[in-house]
């Protein structure tokens, strides 16, 4: 997953925030975040930078932003 892939992971729209570390996507390289996201669910909303409620399930994960809703994987 590249930085642009991480930015568009939620909903296909370009996002301003990294969904793993919560920092601005344009602030630098997020190669470590992209590598970690292969195994981990997103922790921050890529649209508003809010910390999301994350639930890891036997068949995947669910992350919920109070503003933008749920993402599943």
What's the story with the biggest beta sheet? 3 strands, antiparallel
| Secondary-structure content class | alpha+beta
Q: Into which percentage range does the β-strand content fall?
A: 15-25%
Kindly, what is the distance between the CA atoms of the first and last residues, rounded to a whole number of angstroms?
Answer: 14 Å
The parts where pLDDT drops under 50 for at least 5 residues are: 1-12
How many H/I helical runs? Answer: 2
- What is the helix/strand order? HHEEE
> Please, how many domains?
1
Number of extended strands: 3
Backbone shape: globular
The average pLDDT is 82
Instruction: Estimate percent helicity.
Output: 10-25%
Widest sheet: strand ordering: 1-2-3
- What is the CA-based Rg, rounded? 11 Å
Helices and strands in order:
Layout (H helix, E strand, L loop, with lengths): L2 H5 L23 H6 L16 E5 L2 E6 L3 E4 L1
Antiparallel strand pairs: 1-2, 2-3
Describe, in plain words, how this protein is organized in 3D.
The protein has 73 residues and is α+β, with helices and mostly antiparallel strands. The protein has one domain (3-72). The protein has helices spanning 3-7, 31-36; strands spanning 53-57, 60-65, 69-72. It has a three-stranded antiparallel beta sheet with strand order 1-2-3, with no helix packed on it. Strand 1 and strand 2 form a beta hairpin. The longest helix has 6 residues, at 31-36. It is globular and about 35 Å long.
């Amino acid at each position: 997953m590249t930085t642009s892939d991480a930015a568009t992971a939620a909903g296909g729209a370009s996002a301003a925030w990294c969904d793993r570390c919560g920092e601005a996507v344009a602030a630098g390289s997020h190669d470590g975040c992209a590598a970690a996201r292969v195994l981990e669910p997103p922790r921050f909303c890529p649209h508003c930078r809010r910390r999301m409620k994350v639930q890891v399930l036997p068949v995947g994960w669910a992350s919920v932003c109070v503003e933008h809703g749920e993402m599943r994987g």
